[in-house]
Amino acid sequence: MQVPKFVIMLGNRRNLIFRVSIVFNIAVFLYAAMHYSGNSASGVEWVPITSDGSERSAEIRYLKEEFRNESETRPAESSVRNLEESTSQKSIPSTMPSVNKTASSTVSDIDKKVSAVPSEANLINETLDIVDENALSETTLARLRSLLACNDKDFLPTTTQRGEFWVLKNFVRAEHGTVLCHESITYTTHAGFEYFDNVIPLVERWMAPVSLAVHAPGDDLASTVNSIRYLRDCAGNDFVRQYVTFHVFFSYKHIPAKIPNPDEFLQTPFNCTNKAPYFNATPSYKKQKNLLYPVNVARNIARDAALTHFILPSDIELYPSPDLVPKFLNMIARNAKPLNTSTKPRVFPISIFEVDAQVLAPWTKTELQRMLANKTAIPFHKYVCPNCHNIPQGNQWMTTVETNQMDVFHVGKRQGKYLHWEPIFIGTHQDPYYDERLSWEGKKDKMTQGFVLCVKDYDFMILNNAFLIHKPGIKRYVKDSKRDLIAAKQSSYVKKIIHPELKKLYGTKHGCAL
Ligand SMILES: *[C@@H]1O[C@H](CO)[C@@H](O)[C@H](O)[C@H]1NC(C)=O
Ligand SMILES: *[C@@H]1O[C@H](CO)[C@@H](O)[C@H](O)[C@H]1NC(C)=O
Ligand SMILES: *[C@@H]1O[C@H](CO)[C@@H](O)[C@H](O)[C@H]1NC(C)=O
Ligand SMILES: *[C@@H]1O[C@H](CO)[C@@H](O)[C@H](O)[C@H]1NC(C)=O
Ligand SMILES: *[C@@H]1O[C@H](CO)[C@@H](O)[C@H](O)[C@H]1NC(C)=O
Ligand SMILES: *[C@@H]1O[C@H](CO)[C@@H](O)[C@H](O)[C@H]1NC(C)=O
């Protein structure tokens, strides 16, 4: 299929632009460093700024834009961004959200969630009057821009190294065009191609950028490329093409024989009469070589590539509740209690559930509650590791009725009874990274991050209506002695090596454990 025109033209100018943008980024960084060096706000992820930013409101749109004056938002790159006209479309004001499981609707009627509310007024003192919680008005976007004061990022393919891994960042890019850092949330995730059956249900519910890091050693890269092409060309809708950006990575010890060039393979449409290359697939190379899955390398790659301020680092089998992105951003823009009174760094955990293999994932909290009542849904890992996902006030959450707007349901801590809580949450790029020495097979791969969050006294602001549903099928504990052996080794490594390191780096706090 066609590569958008601006991508091709970008190629020639990439070097120059890249250099210019580095200079620009350094300048922004220095400015930020000077600006905040006197601020002791203990890593709080945003600094409310009272006046600046409002003049941009007229141009900003949600994902797709009618017109955007790039010389204002991205001074160093104005020459490039004007090439984006191919993605511009006339926006339809206040399109109702399409909440449709069949996904028969097309991108064009979903991504125009823009209400025409022009405003040049002082945005900070004014109460935000949100008409549609499932849409982002210009006022909301302008408010977000000034509240978050985030930096927009480049969206270019790059080859980098991360320890022993080669990383082809932005290997196949989504066609959403420019995404400014305040105007969406990126679902950041990772997988081998054999998990790609989750991509379509995930993106149909998320309807916003997805940053997917794919472990593709040796011959698994060829299967990965075919799977990407299948998802983009054969899904029956444009969502993958529109929203999902694929990064691939592999160890230098397992470099593929040939590295296909996306500019070439994306030119030819995939033959959709073949079955999905990921369907019932086993990663032959990974299996044959008995490789461990470098889960945290993958998580960090996906997160680093996200263009937005807010990210939802998650597992690819966890499908979000619909309209989470606009509802969450409207909540942030509203900036009511406890958001405007909190002083600690914070993340926003989302409640997780499993559903029976025979049922469809619920679309609303109300539907989820009915399923909990008849036991077709249960809290996540109830039968595998109940304490891992036992969330503060979990039972109250389940019995509280759904409301129209998103709010913070409860502010919890990862302490006491919730010492080993492994929450999935919306956070930002300032949250601690995942330790890249840990493998998926070794288990508890997120615990070191959890420990740092606890020591840094993060607030866990649990969201009221948002939830994640695991791919249908309820998990039971299955003994795997080979994995248990790896887990025992990893656990001892964490205790002996990583824990002392973290104590040196971050200190300790009463009630926090690893
Ligand atoms: C974009 O904004 C700049 C700076 O405000 C202005 O000089 C320029 O004329 C604008 N361009 C368009 C096409 O409106
Ligand atoms: C959902 O899709 C079905 C079948 O295409 C259609 O009849 C129905 O009106 C749609 N519902 C909404 C809310 O768009
Ligand atoms: C906005 O609120 C601040 C603090 O309450 C006040 O100093 C400022 O004058 C207000 N601005 C406007 C335009 O009302
Ligand atoms: C697609 O694959 C099918 C089955 O393998 C084959 O019969 C068909 O000719 C192929 N179509 C094209 C356009 O190559
Ligand atoms: C926080 O927001 C609430 C509701 O919008 C408002 O009543 C309260 O005054 C705000 N508090 C501060 C400290 O700004
Ligand atoms: C459970 O409740 C859901 C939602 O109301 C419904 O769709 C499903 O058919 C019910 N299943 C059983 C076994 O009662």
From TrEMBL:
Residues 71-104 are annotated as: Disordered. The chain crosses the membrane at residues 16-34. The keyword Isomerase does not apply. Keywords: Membrane, Transmembrane, Transmembrane helix. Residues 79-104 have a biased composition (Polar residues). This is N-acetyllactosaminide beta-1,3-N-acetylglucosaminyltransferase. It comes from Chrysodeixis includens.
